[in-house]
Amino acid sequence: AQTVTQSQPEMSVQEAETVTLSCTYDTSESDYYLFWYKQPPSRQMILVIRQEAYKQQNATENRFSVNFQKAAKSFSLKISDSQLGDAAMYFCAYRSPNTGNQFYFGTGTSLTVIP
Amino acid sequence: IAGITQAPTSQILAAGRRMTLRCTQDMRHNAMYWYRQDLGLGLRLIHYSNTAGTTGKGEVPDGYSVSRANTDDFPLTLASAVPSQTSVYFCASSVQRGEKLFFGSGTQLSVL
Questions:
Q1: In whole angstroms, what separates CA B60 from the centre of its chain?
Q2: What residues contact A71, with CB distance under 8 A and at least 6 apart?
Q3: How far is the C-alpha of B72 from the C-alpha of B77, rounded, in Å?
Q4: Given an 8 Å threshold on Cβ–Cβ distance, is A35 in contact with B100?
Q5: Nearest to residue A3, comparing CAs of A88, A100, A73?
Q6: How far is A90 from chain B (nearest CA, A)?
Q7: C-alpha angle B55-B52-B106 in degrees, rounded to nearest 5
Q8: pLDDT tens, residue order, chain B (112 aa)
Q9: Is B64 within 8 Å of chain A by CB?
Q10: In degrees rounded to 5, what are phi and psi of residue B65?
Q11: Residue B47, CA distances (Å) to A3, A102, B12, B20, B40 in order
């Protein structure tokens, strides 16, 4: 099974500043998909951003962007101009199109935004 | 509103009891999944189904069973609950190949 590692259990950022959440993964596949999900205290799982491994261009969604380094198997999330509403648990996820279409999740990073 | 419905929202269960967590989606997604979420462990896949009539085991299948009689429903059964099955359970679905997971709102299960 693929392994997804989030080495930062907790992070904090000042409001309006930038923060980067780290994610690495282990795979022998060349074609796959990567995701960042946000889970606020409401428990709802919200997709933040999605990256296709065959695309070299880093995905961007408004204040959220990724740094995808395929050779290094790294997929970090950058949040710019942090807002209080960004406070949540963030999960990195890997989807394999081959091994039963399964999604593999990291253990999560809890982000605190300091006013 | 299209999406995934999970029931119940929360449940307290005595150890040894049987429990079925319900999951229904109206998006006609082929693939459905059950995850459990535990602090410090993230989301771990219990069982999945890529299409109606087929199921597969995930990372932590022991003590759980699923069925997929039709496209919309994917119930998760705990045959004889144990305290280590205390967790938040999420049902999810997706179209095949690369698209995102859609999640239900989760079931908080406490086994005493």
A1: 12
A2: none
A3: 16
A4: yes
A5: A73
A6: 10
A7: 70
A8: 569 999 999 999 999 999 999 999 999 999 999 999 999 899 999 999 989 999 999 999 999 999 999 999 999 999 999 999 999 999 999 986 667 899 999 999 999 9
A9: no
A10: -140, 155
A11: 17, 10, 22, 14, 20
